[in-house]
Design brief:
This protein is α/β, with parallel strands linked by helices. The protein has a single domain, classed as 3-Layer(aba) Sandwich (Rossmann fold). 34% of the residues lie in helices and 20% in strands. A 9-stranded mixed sheet has the order 3-2-1-4-5-6-10-15-14, sandwiched between helices. The chain has a 3-stranded mixed sheet with strand order 7-9-11. A two-stranded parallel ribbon has the order 8-12. Helix 1 links the parallel strand 1 and strand 2. Helix 4 packs across helix 6 and helix 6 runs parallel beside helix 7. It is globular.
Length: 345
C-alpha cells in the first residue's frame, strides 16, 4: 500500500482553481502536495482557521509552490467568508470537520456547528459562487452512528446529496466520499501508540481483541477522492474497496515485543465498522475498485447507473469490516509503517 492503489490520472485539474476546506489538516496537506506535483492546478486555496497551521504549511513549500497556493484563514461556520474564498473556484474538496468523538460528546453543539451547519454553508456558498464540483469527505462512522460525530457526518452526507436539488438548474454538483480509518494521520491510533512506546509503556491498550477496522493510507485516500471527480453526476456516495485489519494485528506489527492489555470498549465505539448497510444494497453498484451508493431520492432528476446496465448489489449484501474479502497482513502493515513519520502525517 505504499503507492496509491487508485488511479486519479483521469482527473483533469490542469489550470483550474481548487479549494480545500480544512486544508491544513493531514488530508489537506497530502492533497495539496499531490495536486502541485501531479495535476498542475492554476491555484489551490487552503481554507482553514488555524493560522499556525497555515504558517507550517507555507514554510513546507518551495517558493515556486507557494506562488500557486492561497492561505485563506476562515471557518466553515462563516458562510460569507466561504463565498469570498470560492470566487473563481471550479472544484471544492470539503475536508473540514470536528472529528474527536469524546470532545464532540462534551461539546455537542460545537460539533453540529462545524459538521452540519458548516456543511450547509459549503453548499450555499458553492452554489452562490458557481463552483462546478463539490466533493465532501465522510466516514464509516456515519453509517448506523452510535456517537454524535457519526450522527453529524450522517446529517452532513444527507445535506450534500440533497444539495443537488437546490443546484438542479445550475452546473454545481455535489457528491460524497466515504472511507475508513486513515493510517498514520495526526491524532490517530498509530501516533498515539508510538507516543506510549517512547514513554516506556510495557503494554499497549486494546479495547477488544475482536475489534476490526477498515484501513486506508493518506495517499490512497487522496488518490481515491480525486479519482471520483470524473465520475460525479451528483448525489453519489463513493466507497473504496479497502482492506480490514484486526486491532490486535496492528499492535503486533507496530510493537511485537509488547504485551496487549484489554481495557474494554470505550463509550461511542463499535466492535466493527460498516460502510454500506443491507438497506443500501438495492441502490449500490459495484465498479470494480469501488462501490457507488446512488441517491434513493433523486428529486433533481438523473439516470441511475442501474438503468445503464450496472446491476445493483444482491439482497443481503453489506460492507462491514469483519466480513471483508480483503485483509491487511501484519507484514503488509509493517511496510506501510515505514512510510509514516513518527508523529503522524
Amino acid at each position: 500500500m505504499g503507492n496509491a492503489k487508485f488511479d486519479d490520472q483521469a482527473c483533469d485539474l490542469k489550470g483550474k482553481s481548487v479549494l480545500i476546506t480544512g486544508g491544513t489538516g493531514s488530508f489537506g496537506r497530502t492533497l495539496l502536495k499531490h495536486l502541485l506535483k501531479v495535476h498542475e492546478p492554476r491555484r489551490v486555496i487552503l481554507f482553514a482557521r488555524g493560522e499556525f497551521n497555515h504558517f507550517q504549511v507555507q514554510h513546507s513549500l518551495t517558493p515556486e509552490e507557494q506562488r500557486k497556493v492561497r492561505f485563506f484563514i476562515g471557518d466553515v461556520r462563516d458562510r460569507e467568508r466561504l463565498i469570498m474564498a470560492m470566487r473563481d473556484v471550479e472544484v471544492v474538496i470539503h475536508a473540514a470537520a470536528q472529528k474527536q468523538v469524546p470532545l464532540a460528546e462534551y461539546n455537542p453543539f460545537e460539533c453540529i456547528k462545524t459538521n452540519v451547519i458548516g456543511a450547509e454553508n459549503v453548499v450555499q456558498a458553492s452554489i452562490r459562487a458557481g463552483v462546478k464540483h463539490v466533493l465532501a469527505l465522510s466516514t464509516d462512522k456515519a453509517v448506523n452512528p452510535i456517537n454524535l460525530y457519526g450522527a453529524s457526518k450522517l446529517a452532513s452526507d444527507k445535506i450534500f446529496v440533497a444539495a443537488n436539488s437546490l443546484a438542479s438548474r445550475t452546473e454545481t454538483r455535489f457528491s460524497v466520499v466515504r472511507y475508513g480509518n486513515v493510517l498514520g494521520s495526526k491524532g490517530s491510533v498509530i501516533p498515539f501508540f508510538r507516543e506510549l512506546m517512547r514513554n516506556g509503556a510495557k503494554a499497549l491498550p486494546v479495547t477488544d481483541e475482536r475489534m476490526t477496522r477498515f484501513w486506508i493510507t493518506l495517499e490512497d485516500a487522496v488518490a481515491f477522492t480525486l479519482s471520483c471527480l470524473p465520475k460525479m453526476r451528483g448525489g453519489e456516495i463513493f466507497v473504496p474497496k479497502i482492506p480490514s485489519m484486526r486491532i490486535t494485528d496492528l499492535i503486533t506489527a507496530l510493537a511485537p515485543d509488547l504485551e496487549q492489555e484489554i481495557v474494554g470498549i470505550r463509550p461511542g465505539e463499535k466492535l466493527h465498522e460498516i460502510m454500506i448497510t443491507e438497506h443500501n444494497a438495492r441502490s449500490t453498484v459495484d465498479l470494480g475498485d469501488r462501490y457507488i451508493i446512488e441517491p434513493e431520492w433523486s428529486f433533481w432528476g438523473r439516470e441511475s447507473l442501474a438503468d445503464t446496465g450496472h446491476p445493483t448489489m444482491p439482497e443481503g449484501f453489506e460492507y462491514v469490516s469483519d466480513k471483508n474479502d480483503s485483509w491487511m497482513s501484519v507484514e503488509e502493515l509493517r511496510e506501510v509503517l515505514k512510510t509514516i513519520p513518527e508523529g503522524g502525517q
